[in-house]
User: Fold this.
Amino acid sequence: MAATTRNVIIIGSGPAGLTAALYTARANLKPLVVEGLEAGGQLMLTTLVENWPGHRDGIMGPELMAEMRAQAERFGAEIVRGHVSAVDLLARPHTVTTSEGTFSARSLVIATGASARLLGLPSERALIGHGVSTCATCDGYFFRGKPIAVVGGGDSAMEEAVFLTRFASHVTVVHRRGSLRASKIMQDKAFANPKISFEWNTEIEDIKDTGKGEVTSMVLRNSVTAERKELAVDGVFVAIGHTPNTALFHGQLEMDANGYIVTRSGSRTSVPGVFACGDVQDHVYRQAITAAGSGCMAAIDAEKYLDGLPQHLGEATLESRAIG
Assistant:
């Protein structure tokens, strides 16, 4: 028995994916959303979101995602649990394989996001959203007048350190090497800022205090002298990069040197009928609101693409392959 070919399948259920779902559902395209391993995206690890328009007192990250999900479902989006294990973007229609079966679609929206690289400490994971952050723009405001640390030595780390001096009483940059990898202009900005100091050749062994549910200090170890010390901070910003969740699409889509999907003319990828939105193609802004905006773009681009696509295209191929 052949499976039904969908108009749109959306992979990912963060702000980008759910916004794409909302817009395609309102266009009567009856989208299917595959949640992925991290349903709701990075906002599920966030506590209070104060920069989402329309919520002047802020809204909890999981609550915001639950509202977005319910709104998409209200207009007819179908959301299924499961992780996508394979895609065939060169087939017509495109196929998406999950633990629940294989689905096919005339158009595909990729909203799989990017994962912040973490240090790998159990305490770090436990304190995400409770003093440990991967986004200075999102969370810097919560640390007004408090000492914090930034972990990393690249341009992003220096940019976040300089930005955070607007709020923090002091910023300590913790870097595992004896020199920065950041560009000279970003190094100069950081070195010239009196509110920034550096811990060189230093690794973080632990972040305290999981028992209190808040960050109180870090345990540091100097890799040259082997000296250990405890540094009192109220927040830790990990800025050692992001990894786009694009492994599924290697060899099928054009990507940049860092693995982000390349989009042109809005959300269009190198394969007709395949669109990308959110952090999977944006390594610059990485905000929930910009992800949602690009999800809207992908939905509109997909709708326009489908308007010019014969509805029977791919049906014979689909039946012959008996996808189920």
Observations:
- Helices lie at 15-26, 61-74, 122-126, 136-139, 155-164, 184-192, 288-307, 315-321.
- The chain has a mean pLDDT of 90.
- The CA atoms of residues 85 and 268 lie 23 Å apart.
- Residues 288-307 form the longest helix (20 residues).
